[in-house]
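Here we describe the complex-level prediction in full. Unlike the single-chain runs in Section 2.1, the two entities below were treated as one system.
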Amino acid sequence: MPPGLQKTLQEMSGRVPSWLEASDRDENGIVISTSVRLARNLHGHNFPLHADEAELEEVLEKTWAACSAIEPLADSYRMPLQDLPWEDKRFLVERHLISPAMSEIEGPAGVIIGPGECLSIMVNEEDHIRLQQVAAGMAGEETWSVLEAVDDALGRELPYAYREPYGYLTASPINVGTGLRVSVLVHLPALVLTSEVEAVLRHATQNGVQVRGVHGEGSSVYGNLFQVSNQRTLGRSEADILDSLQRVAGLLTDHEQEARSTLWHEARLQLEDKIHRSLGLLSSARVLSIRESMNLLSAVRLGVNMGVLSGVEISRLDELTILTQPSHLDRREGRVLDSSERDMLRAELVRSRIDASGGTTSHE
Amino acid sequence: MPPGLQKTLQEMSGRVPSWLEASDRDENGIVISTSVRLARNLHGHNFPLHADEAELEEVLEKTWAACSAIEPLADSYRMPLQDLPWEDKRFLVERHLISPAMSEIEGPAGVIIGPGECLSIMVNEEDHIRLQQVAAGMAGEETWSVLEAVDDALGRELPYAYREPYGYLTASPINVGTGLRVSVLVHLPALVLTSEVEAVLRHATQNGVQVRGVHGEGSSVYGNLFQVSNQRTLGRSEADILDSLQRVAGLLTDHEQEARSTLWHEARLQLEDKIHRSLGLLSSARVLSIRESMNLLSAVRLGVNMGVLSGVEISRLDELTILTQPSHLDRREGRVLDSSERDMLRAELVRSRIDASGGTTSHE
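The structure predicted for the assembly as a whole is:
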């Protein structure tokens, strides 16, 4: 393990990914972020699941070397994962830099992290290479154009597995073709309050998208945050996929806006009560589970978006959704905590950043 | 109805009974108040339940006249109840000046209210005359000595029904004898939290006391407030009754202190969490039911008593338990509100008196 690794992780834990600083760029606060991901594999190598340790090592070395050689990755950090303790892997999952599935992998693997954590490249997850670019708000074209440049540069260094008429070959058939997955993270508190969210999301899935919690497949939904992404890539162009996600995000935004308007006109007092109580609890609780804090932060975020609360910065709320996660709290305290210790530390951190008068504070 | 009556009620609604200002005199905050009550009847008249309107009128007039004649009642206010709208009677019940049973009576009846509402005399409730004196904290002897003087003076003006060897005759046999009932209002939040309250109160009732909610028989318990009083009066002296209530109050205080100590040592964080959250909700909610506000005020009171919260005045909390009652809110708004309007007004009033930083404020 490189000597600077723990130091790097520690530094990361004190700040949030740079794209999050612009998390209020979507004016109604519904689309929080967009991420695009490409799945790539090296010609002449077995997919990771069928490769032995020597082959995985070889793929990792080849990819490390290629990444070092290309200009877009000049300032990125290469992090080997093989001997990383599980708590550090959990930390990377909480940062959305590696997938939950990747945190379980024990063989040679790694992740390359770009400046500000906007870009990440997983090596030897389900595919040899998975590139990901994130940005705040609805930013399909912006993130895609950045990632396309990285992918093009990397493709000149590495022999990508590609076969006509399919396209890029991937370990799982659902990624064959462009290998592109576009995800938007959407905040739908009003649709949850009006109990319409299930019907709206069911309708969306009929249009070829899938919906998950914040941490990918199988993860539960906290804080009314839903990750919506395209279901298949085969036979579709990148532009087509980007376009369809854009349309679904627009549809969800419209439904959420409508639900907010309904709440405002039909249950304004109850809505304001919920929002103010949530802020009151965040600024007073001594014990907060992750589920409760995410739900309270969600209500406060809605309050800011709807103009019920002022003086609360959205980016500070979003920071807290990252910094209050279990492994983040462990890093802050310098050891692996038990869950009741975390609940206490989480409440303390939230209180230090959200003051009782309703404003967010920048001191700790 | 005397012309000044509505004005008097309106003035009362803006302040609280004067004894409440000393409601923090009991240092651990467990015994909130003591009230002593005497039941008296006039010789030669049927008990109210068996008297016709003319006889009730006669009893009322005789009592009015006697009260006007004696020095201890010089500054008291005589309030006829017969034509008083039910919302005004509810208001008097909320002030503990008349009983819930009395608010249902339609014939000639009245109440005499002493300065600061420490003394009240109901005429033509179950008995012809019921005298009551209240004071903050454990104050059996103090309240008894005041009431005894009033009773003596009144007894010189009116022919009390009295027969040896029973003592004072009353409508219900349980009041025969001294006609004395001593009640203490106790705040037992820790015993409720540790689920010991039922067992402790059951034990107390075996010792000849009865336990009720704040508003007398059949009323439900809000805010962990219990009214404990002697069950019978026959064959017992006043000193005996006072003494036994004092002992029961001491016993309950000990149990409550023990429960507080247990919570402090075994669940301090959860306790502090509950207390701070309660304050957070009181200072932020936009809708508060009476049940919720009483329970939140109870937790905050406990927090002050246990030194978890500072800067919150107990007497301000106790004021709110009076001022947030339904008829008090109606008077504040000048009309009979529906319950959702009250819940909103209650939250507004509480917020104006409890500020977000934890302190109580004196402005409105």
